[in-house]
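2024-03-11 09:14:02 INFO receiving multi-entity request
2024-03-11 09:14:02 INFO entity count = three
2024-03-11 09:14:03 INFO echoing inputs for audit
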Amino acid sequence: MFPSAFSYVAPNTLDETYELLEQYGDDAKVLAGGQSLLPMMKLRLAAPGMLVDIGQVPHLATQHESPDALRIGALTRHAILDSKQFDRYPLLSQTAPWIADPLVRNRGTMGGSLAHADPAADWGATLLALKASVQLASHERQRLVALHDFFVDVYTTALEPQELLTEIIVPAPLADSLVFGHYFKLERKVGDFAVVGVAVTASLTDDGTVSEAGIGLAAMGSIPLAAKKAAALLIGHRLTPELIKEVAQVAAQEGDPQSDRRGSEEYKRSMVRVYVQRGLAQIHQEWQVANQSIA
Amino acid sequence: MAMEATESRPLGKAIKRKEDPRFIRRQGRYLDDIVLPGMLYMALARSPYAHARIKNIRLDEAYKVLGVKAILTGADLEKMNLSWMPTLAGDRQMVLATGKVLFQYQEVAAVVAETRAAAEDAVQRIEVDYQPLDAVVDPYAAMKPDAPLLREDREQKDNHIFHWEVGDREGTENTLASSPIVVKEFIRMPRVHPAPVEPCGCIADYQKSTGKMTWYVTSQAPHAHRTVLAMVSGLPEHMIHVISPDIGGGFGNKVPVYPGYVCSIVLSLQLGRPVKWIETRTENIATTNFARDYHMTAEIGATEEGIVTGLKVITIADHGAFDAAADPSKFPAGLFSIVTGSYNFPIAFAEVDGVYTNKAPGGVAYRCSFRVTEASFLIERVMNTLALRLNLDPVELRRRNFIQPDQFPYQSPLGWTYDSGNYDLTLDKALELVGYEKLREEQAERRARGELVGIGISTFTEIVGAGPSNTFDILGIKMFDSCEIRIHPTGKAIARLGARHQGQGHETTFAQVIAEELGLTTADVLIEEGDTDTAPYGLGTYASRSTPTAGGAAALAARRIRQKAIQIAAHLLEVSADDVEWNGEKFVTKGLESRGVGMGEVALAAYTNLPQGMEPGLEATYYYDPPNLTFPNGAYIAVVSIDRGTGQVAVERFVAVDDCGTVINPMVVDGQIHGGLTEGFGIAFMQEIAFDEDGNNLAPNFMEYLVPTAVEAPHWETGRTVTPSPHHPIGAKGVGESPNVGSPAAFVNAVVDALSPYGVTNLEIPLFPWKVWNVLREHGLTL
Amino acid sequence: MEHRNANESSLVTVVINGETRQAMTEPRTLLAYFIRENLGMTGTHVGCDTTSCGACTVLMDGVPVKSCTVLAVQADHHALMTVEGLESIGGLHPLQQAFWDNHGLQCGFCTPGMLMTSTALLRDHPEPTETEVRHAISGNLCRCTGYVNIVKAIVNASQKMASEPAEV
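2024-03-11 09:21:47 INFO inference complete, emitting structure
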């Protein structure tokens, strides 16, 4: 199928982009990787009058690691995070191979995915677990918005029509800890959106105490979610089987999943429980191996 | 390793496919690759409702779109008496809706424009006022007396289409009543769709100057389509030229005639320009014929020793809004009566009631010989239940009930004469390949550790190759098939067949058959199909019928060539024809092998040096009407484990041993098996067209209609036994569908086996993880 | 700043299989159709409208992408490679040969996409395992082969290419 007719503009700078967004407002849609937007346009579920292709704006596809954060350009393609390892952010490369399929990962971008705000998208869960923020920019202002404030509703974010998501900022883990991360996705086939997605990350000190932790959930509500209560229970404790079980149970109660063709509410909650449990158990095991090799 | 096409005596060899060079070099010519001068594009407006009255259609805005040439509605077609068309099942189907729509995505108007985009733009601007009506989605609800009447056009004022039954009802009921063991199971085969990667499409090209209609169409049955078109349109049949170009997969999807085809033909007739219509994926899945949607209840009677005594099957068939099933005319439930399978049932009874619902019409034989998948799935599943009931190994239960080799030709209680088989031998081979005894030991060990591991068996028998023509016809046309061979003076040949391959490899395998018969190489024989102006009449390729019918015709046409050739050979050898024989490679003088001539020399002589009075040339045509169907069979074993946390099923191993009689090309046969098993896997675990209560299609694209990728598709281990068909000219049976017919039950039996210690006997497909998890939860097995 | 109006055709220039080609097209034209209809190269196929099937896979700047989900105007001044570019004067590409030798295709409709995806795979990972191959082609649907012989063909091609590096 073919999209409805639209005008196309490809700005060369951020300033030009802001100008266009201001000028065209709601009628314009930003085209990043296009892997969600173009299919919707082909099915004529979306019909913007103007596409602003930011593909020619420089520096939007870079990744910059500093001691206190990893700054990921909005146009960073999923495949980059699949192939490039950022050692202090293992959850990113654990998540990337689960996104869509390999061909879609070659085009789709992290910023585009977040701005699309599908509640089942994988980056949302992972970046919430990592307590990431996004940089939103327009002519008028630059603002840093924590990801948990960014997602508003299904396909709806805090982005104003004149704003562009330029960068994702992931804070660095504590320096004196080992950091681990795993992403679990229940999908019905490659390319499927998550039935349930669970991102688990934790930093463990020398004696195995959790110093930092995050749990993100995909497809467990109208927006990607952070299981904050569950993650908080981990802080300051070792990963005992009892604690893992308790945390998993608490995580399963965070979120508000709907019963649908992909499973009942009860099923989805149980999947969160199972995956959080598996993720934390795996982290504990990896920590033991790492600790032994250090010793 | 595969062999070159220049190999001599090619039958049974893994000859590399002759069609491949054009496909790997982008020179395939699929329908959408064809561009004709002045060609227009068509798009269809479709109903958003499953059941609604059409109050009004407004076209003004649509006509304003630049490039729109014409818009067709049901009212326009009504004037031409074309708003309805006959279906292959003897029902009729709306081409463009008049009065009301009966399924979501039903065709309401056709737009033709200079570009595809303009046609789609105009479709969006067609305004239709609908008055929504209550939709009937459940076939059981459709049969209730107070159900809304769907088909107001019929005299019969309910939603019942047909009742069909076979066998001895009373005798079977009595047998079941007196059998010490009776198991009963409800088995549902949900609605699925073949979904080849290339959707359906056509170009109708009517030349007003010559009066000739050239119709390029993704057709598995071009001759039948030509005849149907002649009957529907009134165009003289010799002025219709159907060309079925390379086809990107069919699996039954490209057998019926669809409303879009008719609209493009009408528009081309009106405008005198070529009109192309290519389905979108949504149109393909949501409107062209589905498969299955069979709701079956079966009872098997047995002795305490596990000898089956009788089988009774009651079925409700959901045909959607129109009965557009692609079955032979006398078989409204296809060949469902193969349901007694590989087992020696003394008595049986089966009945099928077809009903209308507010869903897309169908169904086709999706990689299946007319409802054989439903039948095989049913019997293999319920035999599993019987084994559980008797606490008997499913292998042992099957052995006790197999039809024995000395019983062939075997007369089944539901009317078929099975040609050949050696079921124990095939099963033995599968058991050996999988290491059955050891596997059962490992299963016991793993079960003791709390793992859920299952082994599933399916020992199915298929029925493929319709005709014979005294039983089988489609719209009255007998189901034979044909081959015409011409040998050129230099000993090379062209052969044309009435079949139409869609990836099965006919250009290689039929060349092998003919080359074998004529002492040529596969490279020497060019196979052509899909052009009705050149190929002899045939009924096409579906239901695994090509090798049993057209393949037989190829061998017999070649033998007819040999009948003449032997006369020419005798002339060349200067002996009497009685003193000449064919030694498999050439004609030789009896008792003097060294004195011989090959087909090349004979061919040249046929044009240059004939015996006195002989008609020149070397050609033959054969219309082969098979004396019986063929009955391929197989033994499949699946090994699965279940993740107790998520309900996900992993297929750890799958062994498939098939017996399709004589093998023409083992590489091609294995390829067919791999593909069919993967579709069977999809049907068992992923593929389903579901609807909500309003009749909205919930899986109209590849995001929701889930077909396996290389990651989900299991590894397949294949094996083979060869029990030739005694009546087929080269002993071959069909094979393309066996794996799809036989495998779903093996998967489900394996999952049931994993859960059987907890009392589970039945599970409904597709086995989505959540469904399995629900069962785990019910039995306290979740983590 | 590049600006193209709705419903108006403008020039798109691509270097496709090493050759510079130009055509006028609307902003909404999808790259797959630009290649097929504007440039007349029909090896690239279209099998769905939800970016699911991968029959339309081409290499854009060396990266395999689904050309039904890229706008032709986005490819302006980019390098493309399609199945038409695989064959060299010397003959078939090792992958084409391996697909033929191993019965890696049946109806042939998904084959061009499979070939393009695997071309990029073998360039980046010359010795993939079977599992890696299966993951790499998981954005390309095939309904005929059950993938067995496609995987075999790709592994086979990788071995041949390793032993005959001159051909790569």
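2024-03-11 09:21:48 INFO post-check: The two ends of chain A are 61 Å apart (CA to CA).
2024-03-11 09:21:48 INFO post-check: The first helix of chain A runs from residue 14 to 24.
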